[in-house]
Amino acid sequence: MMVVMTGSAHAFAREDYGSVVVRYIDPDTFQAVERSLGVWRCAGRHNYFSIRSWLENRLGYFGVAAGDIASSTTDSGANVRKAMLEITAGWVPCAAHSLHNAFRLALGRSGESADQRAARGANGGPRAQRRLKECRNTPMRELLSRLRATVRFFEHSDAEALSLNAVPVSEDPQIRGLRQEVATRWGSTLFCVQRLNTMFPRLTVYFRYRDLTAEQRSRRVAQADWDPLRHLIGVLSPVAEVTKACQSSTATLADISTKLVQQRLTLLSDVVDVPKLPDVSLAVGAAAIEAFLKDFPEEDVVELDNRLYGSELIYLEETEGYDNLCTEAPLAVY
């Protein structure tokens, strides 16, 4: 019987702890079983040496030898990758993390500003300079920069955030804040964009009657940005579904494969299912959404941030000499 042993690191009260969980298929019921074996403190810094020492200690504690390990799977972080390669050669990168990195690259992000990249290249020597790459998706990078600047504008001022929520929207009176994107959190770009889309009525009224400086206006989300924003939601939604399924402790390969096929169809298709131009929501909350779907089963809708909106199919414009996917994309998508 094959047993999957999972180790996870968590931070609590400025100290690191690691947990060990085993998962296996019960031979009598053929159901996935999950058992937690305990939580232990992780000493030292979060580098590959400390991670390797903690893993070797726990494996020895449970009587697992290196020869008993068929393969290991972690994210692509240099510290955990190096630690696992020194324990077992059968290392397989995490599918969800690989997708996350691929789409971050496709969206024009590297996790640092232009000034930070220049400083790293100047101070890091030849090896750091080789990592400097020109962004391949400048329009999307600039769009996401404006979206992040809009979110930060309200995060840094409680008064402005209160003024935004004070804008009356009868269909959606709930007070909410914008969601900041977190580079290391899977799906955070989609969640950030979805919240912006659902806050469109308030943001439009707020920026129309608010006195902003020229710099603030140049950095805020503009009226022309809402169209590519909804296109981005249509492309990122199936990716988020795949990464969510990969994190499930009970999902089977068939469950993940179905969502991978849907993602491939989205990337290769000539049409994309996207929300209609931002408007007031059709239903808010699980109960209202369920009632709407029951009353209008044929309506084309999409759920964003626990709110229901109309959806439509848009056709992609073809550019001569370019395919839907770049030459490097199949390595990540397939």
Biggest β-sheet, characterized? Answer: 4 strands, antiparallel
How many helix segments?
14
The coarse overall form would be globular
SSE string, helices as H and strands as E: EEEHEHEHHHHHHHHHHEEHEEH
The figure for the number of domains is: 2
Strand residues, percent: 15-25%
Q: Return Rg in Å.
A: 23 Å
Q: In terms of structural class, how would the helical and strand content be classed?
A: alpha+beta
- Tell me, rounded to a whole number, the average pLDDT: 76
Helix content: 40-55%
Query: Low-confidence runs (pLDDT<50, min 5 residues)?
Result: 330-334
- The number of E-state strands comes to 9
What is the CA-CA span between the terminal residues? 29 Å
What does this structure look like?
This protein has 334 residues and is of the alpha+beta class. Helix content is 47%, strand content 17%. It contains 14 helices and 9 strands. Strand 2 and strand 3 (32-42) form a beta hairpin. Helix 1 (48-61) packs across helix 2. The model is unreliable at 330-334 (pLDDT under 50).
In short:
With 334 residues, the protein is α+β, with helices and mostly antiparallel strands. It has 14 helices and 9 strands.
Which descriptors apply to this entry?
334 residues, single chain, alpha+beta, disordered C terminus, 14 helices, 4-stranded antiparallel sheet, 47% helix
Q: Secondary-structure map with pairings?
A:
Blueprint: E1 4-12, E2 15-25, E3 32-42, H1 48-61, E4 72-74, H2 78-87, E5 91-93, H3 95-106, H4 114-123, H5 125-130, H6 138-155, H7 158-165, H8 188-198, H9 200-209, H10 214-219, H11 226-247, H12 253-268, E6 271-275, E7 283-284, H13 286-295, E8 301-304, E9 307-315, H14 329-333
Parallel strand pairs: 4-5
Antiparallel strand pairs: 1-2, 2-3, 6-9, 7-9, 8-9
